[in-house]
Automatic annotation (TrEMBL):
One of its GO terms (cellular component) is plasma membrane. Residues 23-124 form the Phytocyanin domain. Keywords: Copper, Electron transport, Glycoprotein, Metal-binding, Signal, Transport. This is Phytocyanin domain-containing protein. Residues 1-22 form the signal peptide. The lineage of its organism: Eukaryota, Viridiplantae, Streptophyta, Embryophyta, Tracheophyta.
Length: 174
């Protein structure tokens, strides 16, 4: 019985974490974070619906690139000289920890001007977001459809585990 209880507690913790983690987006999908003109990052972002607690992954070669979070003004003017935060691991995970706009650019000379910058708007999650008919993404490309699907799958997984654990819990109590 003690074993069962601790297993149960573990499962509940797991389920709660599954719910609190948001979706994960790889910036630029398979192209990653690049200055070679392969990705229009603002177009990429416009096909997504970012929420607080979602995570961005910037993947790139850190010999050539980095990620700087900057102000609106520095984003517009491609100014890398007063960043809010700098990331340079080559595989940076950044959580959207508040609602509002986030501005990222690559600080390597010329890269921002070549298009290596992205503006992300994070909104608070609403219960309506999981209904497929509410999503205004009819004409999106196949690759972004795939990542949207994955993101949706992640959040549904958390919900599924919660439902499972809750029903198991109820089975124990009654
Ligand atoms: Cu760069």
């Amino acid at each position: 019985m003690a074993f069962r209880k601790s297993t149960l507690i573990f499962l509940v913790m797991l389920a709660l974490c599954g719910v609190c983690f948001g979706a994960v987006y790889r910036v630029g999908d398979s192209n990653g974070w690049t200055s070679r003109g392969l990705v229009d990052y603002n177009e990429w972002a416009s096909t997504k619906d970012f929420h607080v607690n979602d995570t961005l992954i910037f993947a790139y070669n850190n010999q050539f690139h980095n990620v700087m979070q900057v102000t609106t003004q520095d984003f517009e003017s491609c100014n890398p000289n007063s960043p809010i935060a700098v990331y340079s691991s080559g595989s940076d995970t950044i959580t959207l920890d508040r609602p509002g706009n986030f501005y990222f650019l690559c600080g390597a000379p010329g890269h921002c001007r070549a298009g290596q910058r992205v503006e992300i708007m994070a909104t608070l999650p609403t219960p309506d977001d999981s209904s497929p008919s509410a999503s205004p993404t009819e004409a999106i490309s196949a690759s972004s459809a795939l990542s949207n699907g994955l993101a949706l799958h992640f959040s549904k997984l958390g919900l599924g585990v919660t439902m499972f654990v809750l029903s198991t819990l109820l089975g124990f109590v009654f």
